[in-house]
Predict the structure.
Amino acid sequence: MSEAIANGLYGLVAGFLNMHWSNPIMIVVGLVLLYLGIKKDIEPVLLVPIGFGCILVNIPLAGLMDKDGFLRIIYEAGILTELFPLFIFVGIGAMTDFGPLLENPKIFLLGAAGQFGIFLTLALALALGFTKLEAVSIGIIGACDGPTAIYVTSQYAPQLLGAVSVAAYCYMSLVPIIQPPIMRALTTKEEKMINMGTVKKSVSKTTKLLFPLIVTILGGLIAPKGLPLLGTIMLGNFMKECGVVSRLTKASENEIANIVTLLLGISIGATMDGKVFLTPQTLIILVLGFVAICLDTACGVLFGKLLKVVTGGKVNPLIGAAGISAYPMSARVVQKEGQKYDKKNFLLMHAMGANTGGQVGSVMAAAVMLSVLKGMGVI
Amino acid sequence: MDNWTFGITMVVVGMGGTVLTLWILSLLMSFLKRVFPYTKEEK
């Protein structure tokens, strides 16, 4: 009788007794993520489920990530199969207007320069001793694009998924803090004051409609391994531009995107088990992610300076900083910086063009990277 | 393949491939804009 009571009481305290030292720390990390999402408004739709998922998975004996645990089921169904990031991409495509980019197609090149940080960080990660595929996954933080980072990491370095995703989403939301000092340091006052004029509406509906098709076909032929990423974002955009499937477009940008974001967030949080997450490696990944985004910004601005020279001073190098995928935050940062030096300088629409170029650029960079890896026989 | 060769290849081919692909796309888009110009009726 007394043994049964003791066993029963043990069952009630077993959770406390089985706590690993890392679990309370990770519960605090989860609470910090919730705080950042709720109080600081940093990507709340992602940080709230990620933070909550992190708390859930660090409560011992609940077995939520064990076989048949509900978080494991969601993780295997959506992350390991890569479906969640792809569904998100359909929504992103449906929400994005590539008009400002198509007004001035040479801005596409800024979207390429804004991805250089991916490759430079990859090389840095290799130098620090990460394996080839881990380096690829760390470098992809520089895409400044959560779904792309999750897509690549879940395939090639799933053990880093928690750290890479948290870094990708946190730095994406910190763009307004990270970018301005770099932009200021790399441009002169005269360059910051270059007025690019207003964006005239000059893109026909046919061009807008053909754009996603051409990107899909050409991009898919050049980098077939990245076609799922390219194809889904362009499918979303094609549905938006064709105008005859508004129900599907609305569902993609609202219901589907919302449901998938919830499941994606909670699954990422579920990868943040303290025993796996709390390692020096995670800290290095967070630092490398920061370096990647700084390099993206610097390369974008420097490429903007090159375009300024090539075009005879018609391009304001500040818009180069918007050649990353953090849309539309990065474009807003450019607008704000430009107006600090000339209140009548409206760079927003030009920066939006570079920013949407950055969206295509980040997906294309990931696609090119995967195809090069395939070509070299690494994957 | 050693890490050094891999890293250099990824930097050169990856960055070059991304720039080249987007440059081709920008040329195609400029071409499309000429073939299908914006008309006032579209307003």
